[in-house]
Structures are given as structure tokens and as C-alpha cells.
Design a protein that fits this description.
Cytochrome p450-Terp, domain 2, 3 strands, 55% helix, Citrate_synth-like_lrg_a-sub, citrate synthase activity, Citrate Synthase, domain 1, mainly alpha, Citrate synthase, three-stranded antiparallel beta sheet, Citrate_synth-like_sm_a-sub, binds coenzyme A
């Protein structure tokens, strides 16, 4: 390719060397700091995964306990900074999350990964409680991060199986190569700016439906389809209308997103525990139909289920309202964003790409 040609989506452009995660789109493999996602998710706590991303090794013993305490303190300190009365005006949870996070400062200690990660969970939950007509719940530092996040989101002390479902989710989405929100965070960090600013930029990027905004619409789609027999007609009509099928397709993966299988497995475990929402069979049927219809329409461009497809059904089964799905995605991904900010500071340079001028020539 001509080296001066514009690559507007930066497809295939390598912008960083990273130790944090590798996305192998051809083979459908995700490795997080030397661990296949299938071995990490479901087996490792969110605290341990965050520690892995922030320090390069899976923490154990006192190191793990220290991360758990730091995250708990992050939640408590973030709650102290919350302006709960501002939340009701936000219709969108990502707007609320962005605004609440933007009030934090490095001077108040929020440059630290554990503080920021605690804050995003608290603010996601605070908005969800407000939207449900309640008041935000104060964090409980005695609980694990996943258990406390679920308690603050739902207002109830959660069932351990549901906590396990959310924990698997948070670990699964903690990091994923140079996705748009991570890139946004790294661009901001590359200027020497503070971590709060980087995370606020990342939240803005994650809000978009092409990135983190898809799981709510996936559940809307499953509701509209209602039963497997109606899937083909519904999907065909969407494609004929030129609309995208949410939860399908990916910039990097040319096979099914490995995270879809991890989340599908977590959902199956909830179903076995009698706690699922009965949507697993419908989701599987719709996925099959959508994959076939997309293959027929784009025979040269494999478009399979991405992480958002089963996120929608899993988070619903865990007890979350669909409006809280994207903020909850942020509550997991913030661990990766913070790790990338640290890595960018340690190894990166100012990110400053070029553009090609196509405007009018200056007047003589
Ligand atoms: N449904 C229908 N068509 C789709 C599609 C989908 N989910 N995903 C891609 N396509 C189509 C595109 O419209 C494009 O067709 P066109 O050339 O006729 O316009 C073609 O497939 C190639 O897609 P492209 O735009 O190159 O893909 P991308 O790499 O830019 O997009 C996504 C990747 C994720 C943004 C895209 O697959 C998508 O919009 N998916 C739905 C939203 C979603 O699930 N987002 C969460 C991502 S984790």
C-alpha cells in the first residue's frame, strides 16, 4: 500500500508495543499478560486480573489483599466525591459516568489505577440506582469488588452465583488490545496529561454503539424477535433496511470472538443454577441465524458474534437493567485503560499522527 495513503480507521496500523493483551483475530484468541482469557475468566478474581494488568504478575497472598483493599478504598473515596443530586438529569448512563468521573482530580489521589477503577464502579452503580428511583448506595469495603459493584448496582446483597457471573464478565472485558477507548486513553496519556483525563476520554469513546454501546440494543433485538422461529425474518428485514445487527461483527476477529464463548459459558452456569433468564436458547438461535444471514450478504467478510452479544444476556441474568450495561462494561475495562496509561507513560511517545489535506488551495 502507498505509505501516504489515508487509512481512516487505522486498520492494521500498529501504534504501540504492549505487554498487556494480544488479540489474534484470525484464530480467535485473546491473551491477557500471558494468560488465555478462557483460563483467566471464571477462575480469577477481578482484583487479581487488575493486579496482573497493573503489575505484570498475578498477585497472590498479601499482594492480592493489598489490591483488594486499594480497590475498596477507591470505591469509598469516589463515593465521597459523588454529587448524587446531579445524577437525575442524565438520561444516559455513560453521560452520567463521564460527568461524575470528570470531577475527580489527581490532587485528590485519583491518578492511581485502583482509585479510578473503584470510582467507575461506584458511579456506574450510582446512576443505575438513581434511574431506578433510589439513592446511590455507599460502598461496602468488606466485600469483593464484583460483589460490592453488583450490590450497589441492584440495591440487594447479591447471590454468589450472580456475583460469579458479573466477576467473569468484568475479567473477560478488562483488556482487549488497541480498541478505540484504550487508544483514546493512550492518546491523552501520551500528552503527559493525568489519568483522570485519559479515563474520561476513554469513557466517551466507549459510549458509541460501534464500541461499547451495543449490548443494550442486543437485548432489545432479542425481545423484538421473541422466539427462535421469528429470527430469520427479523434479521433479514434489518439487513434489507441497511441496519447493522448489534453484537455481530468485529474489526479484528475473523472468527467468533472468544469472549462470546466465555460469557455464553458463564450464562450456561447461571442457567444450571436456576438463575438465568431463559434467553440463552433464543440468543443461540438468533446468533446462528444472524451469522448465516451475514455470511450470505458478505461472503468475503466473516461477521460472527462479538463480546456484546452474550454480554447482553449475561448481564440481564445477573440482574442488571439494560441501561446499565455500557457503564458496567466501563467498570471492567477501566482496569485495562489504567494499565495502558501506565504503559504509555513508561514506554510511549506523544501520539501525533498525520492527516492529508484535501481542502481548497490557498487563494493567490
Ligand atoms: N451487521 C450488518 N452488517 C455489518 C455488521 C453487522 N453487525 N458489521 C459489519 N457489517 C458490514 C458493514 O456494513 C460493511 O458493509 P458495507 O461495506 O456494505 O458498508 C461490511 O460489513 C464491512 O464492515 P466494516 O464497516 O469494515 O466493519 P468495521 O470493522 O468497521 O466494523 C464493527 C466493526 C464492530 C463496528 C461492526 O461489525 C458493527 O457495527 N457491529 C455492530 C455493532 C457492535 O456489535 N459493536 C460492538 C463491537 S465489540
Amino acid at each position: 500500500m502507498d505509505s501516504t495513503a489515508t487509512r481512516s480507521g487505522l486498520d492494521g496500523v500498529v501504534v504501540a508495543d504492549t505487554r498487556l493483551s494480544e488479540v489474534d483475530g484470525e484464530r480467535g484468541r485473546l491473551v491477557v499478560e500471558g494468560h488465555d482469557i478462557e483460563r483467566l475468566a471464571g477462575a480469577t478474581s477481578f482484583e487479581a486480573t487488575a493486579g496482573l494488568l497493573w503489575t505484570g504478575a498475578l498477585p497472590q497472598g498479601e499482594a492480592l489483599a493489598a489490591i483488594r483493599r486499594a480497590l475498596a478504598e477507591g470505591r469509598v473515596r469516589a463515593f465521597e466525591q459523588l454529587e448524587a443530586d446531579e445524577l437525575p438529569r442524565f438520561v444516559d448512563g455513560m453521560d452520567a459516568l463521564r460527568a461524575a468521573t470528570a470531577r475527580l482530580t489527581a490532587e485528590d489521589g485519583f491518578d492511581a489505577p485502583a482509585r479510578l477503577t473503584g470510582a467507575v464502579a461506584v458511579y456506574a452503580a450510582a446512576w443505575a440506582r438513581t434511574r431506578a428511583g433510589g439513592r446511590p448506595l455507599a460502598p461496602d469495603p468488606e466485600l469483593s469488588h464484583a460483589a460490592d459493584t453488583l450490590r450497589m448496582l441492584t440495591g440487594e446483597l447479591p447471590d454468589p452465583a450472580r456475583v460469579a457471573g458479573l466477576e467473569t464478565y468484568l475479567v473477560t472485558v478488562a483488556d482487549h488490545g488497541m480498541n478505540a477507548s484504550t487508544f483514546a486513553a493512550r492518546v491523552v496519556a501520551s500528552t503527559g496529561s493525568d489519568a483522570v483525563s485519559a479515563i474520561v476520554a476513554a469513557i466517551g469513546a466507549l459510549k458509541g454503539p460501534l464500541h461499547g454501546g451495543a449490548p443494550g440494543p442486543v437485548l432489545d433485538m432479542l425481545d423484538e424477535i421473541g422466539e427462535p422461529a421469528r429470527a430469520a425474518q427479523w434479521i433479514e428485514a434489518e439487513l434489507a433496511a441497511g441496519r447493522r445487527i448489534m453484537g455481530m461483527g468485529h474489526r479484528i476477529y475473523r472468527v467468533r470472538d472468544p469472549r462470546a464463548a466465555v460469557l455464553e459459558g458463564a450464562l450456561a452456569r447461571l442457567e444450571q443454577a436456576g438463575l438465568a433468564n431463559g434467553r440463552l436458547a433464543l440468543a443461540r438461535a438468533v446468533e446462528r441465524v444472524a451469522e448465516g444471514a451475514l455470511r450470505a450478504k458478505y461472503p468475503d467478510r466473516p461477521l460472527a458474534a462479538n463480546v456484546e452479544f452474550y454480554t447482553a444476556v449475561l448481564l440481564d441474568a445477573v440482574g442488571l437493567d439494560r441501561a446499565a450495561f455500557s457503564p458496567t462494561f466501563a467498570a471492567g475495562r477501566v482496569a485495562g485503560w489504567c494499565a495502558h496509561v501506565l504503559e504509555q507513560r513508561a514506554t510511549g511517545r506523544l501520539i501525533r499522527p498525520a492527516s492529508r489535506y484535501v481542502g481548497p488551495a490557498p487563494q493567490a
